[in-house]
Specification:
Layout (H helix, E strand, L loop, with lengths): L1 E5 L6 E5 L9 E11 L1 H8 L10 E2 L3 E9 L11 E4 L2 E2 L5 H4 L10 E2 L11 E5 L4 E2 L6 H4 L7 H10 L7 E5 L3 H12 L3 E6 L2 H9 L4 E4 L6 H9 L3 E6 L4 H9 L1 E9 L11 H6 L3 E4 L8 H10 L8 E6 L3 H10 L4 E5 L1
Parallel strand pairs: 11-12, 11-14, 12-13, 14-15, 15-16, 17-18
Antiparallel strand pairs: 1-2, 1-4, 3-5, 3-9, 3-18, 5-6, 6-10, 7-8
Helix pairs in contact: 4-5
Length: 340
């Protein structure tokens, strides 16, 4: 089968013929219909962030497809079924899984990180967390549910705990950030979107943001947020992974407010600990999504409460994966998918 194989930062990606995965008793083989192109992969390819499994490794963790083969112990799924593969697969047995916090499973398996991912014609995965998709959701669009929608869903609902009437400022309006905007709006929040790209800010307005701030055109975003909210947002969400924007998001929060960090960075940040104590500010992280949250999320997509059609702005054949990364870096795509 054809696959985009990552060989480390020095070599990068190569398009190769590799063997179709062999599956075990509890696994399924999926013929990939589409795989979303995520900034996380750029961290591996260009920024030196190590993958858990050493290269060579097939990247890609936002996948939808059709079941091609099922293992001997799989009874819930069948050949020909349309499925969504969560970006992170869980063990179901560790302490965190048994606490209902499977998204921080101590034995988690991430596609394109721990095991070969879905920038390929076929992918083999454990069947436990894979979800059936209704016929009404096109597979080419459904792929982005696996991360670009599920990650902000968990962040908005479970970690930021957005409620009707909350003022929420969201830093970063890329593929994940735009869904934080959409989901916070769906919760009844008053959303302020922050980015340095006017095109992305226009998208944010289309997906529900009441106000937008171009960070490159103001002195301090936190000052603008405080002006708009009368003292600071109830909740700030950072969906970029940049120390400066995390720090500015923290400064945008009102007394008694909450900062939710969704973006990844390996760098240190500098915030005044005394403000956390004296203002009783909560600082929480958010990683991925719990398996139990996918079913209601898929229902929201099916009902139209979450719009995925407008989010897939670009489609490329697998051989043109690098073009998908190019439009991402140029800031002209909202979400791209590759079609094997």
């Amino acid at each position: 089968m054809k696959a985009a194989v990552f060989h480390g930062t020095d070599i990068g990606l190569k398009f190769e013929d590799i063997s179709i995965p062999k599956i075990g008793p509890g696994e399924i083989l999926v013929k990939v219909a589409a795989c979303g192109v995520c900034h996380t992969d750029l961290h591996y390819i260009e920024h030196g962030v190590p993958t858990h499994k050493k290269p060579p490794l097939v990247l890609g963790h936002e996948a939808s497809g059709v079941v091609e083969e099922v293992g001997a112990d799989v009874t819930r799924l069948a050949k020909g079924q349309r499925v969504l593969i969560p970006a992170v697969l869980t063990c179901g047995e560790c302490t965190f899984c048994r606490m209902g916090r499977e998204n921080i499973c101590s034995a988690m398996t991430m596609l394109g990180n721990h095991i070969n991912g879905a920038y390929a014609e076929y992918v083999g995965v454990p069947a436990k967390d894979v979800l059936a998709l209704p016929d009404s959701i096109p597979l080419e669009q459904a792929a982005i549910i696996a991360d670009a929608i599920s990650t902000p869903y968990h962040a908005v609902k479970n970690r930021a705990q957005v409620r009707p009437g909350d003022t929420v400022v969201i830093f970063g309006c890329g593929g994940v950030g735009i869904n934080a905007v959409q989901l916070a709006t769906a919760c009844g929040a008053y959303v302020i979107a922050v980015d340095i790209n006017d095109r992305k800010l226009e998208w944010a307005s289309q997906f529900g943001a009441v106000k937008t701030i171009n960070a490159s055109k103001v002195d301090r975003v936190s000052k603008e947020v405080k002006k708009l909210t009368g003292g600071g947002a109830d909740i700030a969400m950072e969906v970029i992974g940049n120390p400066k924007t995390i720090e500015e998001a923290f400064e945008s929060v009102r007394i008694g407010g909450r900062l939710c960090v969704v973006g990844y960075t390996h760098e240190k940040i500098s915030i005044v600990a005394g403000k956390i104590m004296f203002k009783e500010i909560e600082v929480v992280g958010s990683l991925g999504c719990r398996p139990l949250d996918y079913a209601p999320l898929i229902r929201m997509v099916e009902s139209g409460a979450i719009d995925i059609e407008r989010q897939v702005t670009h489609q490329f054949p697998l051989a043109e994966l690098e073009k998908a990364f190019a439009v991402m870096k140029e800031g002209v795509s909202l979400r791209s998918v590759v079609i094997p």
